[in-house]
Amino acid sequence: MTGIAGTTMQATPTTQSQSRIPTVDDLRVKLCFICREEEQYNSPEDPPRAWTHPCTCTLVAHEACLLQWIKAAQDDPTRALNALKCPQCGASYQLESDNPHPKILRLLDNANALLSIAGKVFVIGGLATVVVSFGFGVYLVLTSYGAHALRSMVGEEMYNILLTDEPSNWPWHAFINLPMIPVSLVLSRSAYFSSFPLLPLIISWPSSHPVTSAAARIGGTGWRLLSGPRDDLPYGPVFGWPPSPMMASLLFPLIGRIYREQYSKVMHAILGKKPSERGPVRDIVWDFGGEGPVPFRARIGLAVDPAERQRRQQQRREQREQQEQQEGQEGQEGQEQEHQPNAQAPAQDAEGQDQQGNAQTIRITNASIGRAIGGALFMPTIASFMGSVLYRLAKYSPTLRTILAIRPPLVGRRRIQLLGPWLDSQGFTRMSLLKKVGMSLHVALNLVCGGTRVWYESDPVWWRNSLGLGIFIVARDCIELLYLYLAKRDFETRRVKSRPFEGVDLSQLDLIHPPTSDASNGLVPAA
Amino acid sequence: MAVSTRRLQKELAEIKNQGTPVGIQLLSAENFQEWHLSLEVLGDTVFAGEVFCLRFRFDNQYPISSPAVQFVVDDKWKAPTHPHVYTNGHICASILGNEWSPVLSVISVCVTLQSMLASCKKKELPPGNDRYVRHAPDNPKKTRFEYDDDTV
Q1: More confidently predicted of A494 and B32
Q2: How confident is the model at residue A414 (pLDDT cuts 50, 70, 90)?
Q3: Is B92 assigned a catalytic role?
């Protein structure tokens, strides 16, 4: 066909514009196959809407209608395969878009896909682990993960002081606290428990006493109540650098919250979305088959039961009618009131439609679950890595060293007491009961707020790890934002490529300048 | 005005101007949410002499989203006994599901269903009919049908 067209073009080189293959703009009447609106060539719409002829048959459409259809089809995994095909001739649509950095978008696309695969692998591996070690196994796994997380977060030295590898040394709360760590890490990923992910790591550990073996190593005679010279407080100061555990546990969620708010503002500024645009969740789809053919699909409809809504509307209407009746009995305005229910009914309908338009569907795939959970559980490892990077960098920068508050490892043999500074054993026994209780409370409160002396004086690995994690999160969010921005740019500026009516029998088309009768092959329209 | 309303107005005008194909009649189209059409299979088929009623329900995303189409089952109407039609009137047809496209219309859906009935050789209920009817949602679009049989 193209060969013939080529020769005709050569035969009439002077009339190039006439031998041009007609495009969608040459049609006398354009009929959108989606919305069925017509447009005459001599009375274009105001404002004009773009038309496209995306395939190899005679169908034409508004570009906006077609893009809407493509988007709807792509959102449904059962139809996504055919989303870019003409329903009549089966030709593939070609999309174009203005993307300043197509390579970066492709790269991020690939990275995204890779992460999804990793997420899937993680889910399969994780499921297998859970099934094998169900029950006590689960607890063991959670606990040992918790111990690993703690070791990553507070560093080797602190870990050996607080916990050690020997569970018989562990303080009682470790058996509750450690398995909670992975749980809270994962929960912190969901929108409903938005909190700083490492909070359970920081709370309760600083006030924990060194295990016996470690205490013997660092503290000589160790932790004997009311003994020795009064050289030290048993707890660290509440205000200091790095922040005391209490300050940190107050600060981190606060900073996290402010950061999230600012982040969503920046995101909305860049992506141009209003924060309130999200509709109510109507549907959560568990799509464990992913894109594969696995017939393991379940749907959970969270849709508002239409019958329920109707009943509520009915109730409202009845209430109104009752009111009217009362008012009618009271006054003479009953007649006017009667028209109200009719007037309000369409408004309610519109409301219902609005809800439907805004409603969103949350699609949960095994990859997305894997990414969320896997990502959360890698947090301590990432924190530890980032912390060690910061530690190395600090060798070259005294400022960073101050910020990180790096200290040499604990070596001194120091007597540490619980109630040392104000009283000796005689003093304490002589005190009144009230004063004893008050003093004990004071020490306990300071322990909780400031952490133990050991915690305060040792190298604050947890602090640089937390900072490192913060930096990591910010960097990750920036990359995510860039990805979203590029993807959005790509999506918004995409067009469906319009093709000339090549290969279509031109006598079927209603052209502004119809082909002359002698153009029997239907490819050479004359003037 | 919603896109669905404009499009349905066009389809309605087309039906009023050009009429409907043989065996298909518009029963009611009072609003742009729900239409009823009658369907009759002409010629020598297993459904000779039977008339069925089709109910179309449109949301405001039509024609981007497919209409919910089912046979009416009440005192007056009955669903055809067909391997792709459940006794509650729900129809298992790919053009109503993942093969729906905006190029289709109310009339073209009717014509397709008409030919689906016409090509039926033996009146049979779909497998698992009772179980499906017991648990079926009100709106057939909420059912995830498996379109496995292209022959009927």
Answers
A1: B32
A2: very low
A3: yes
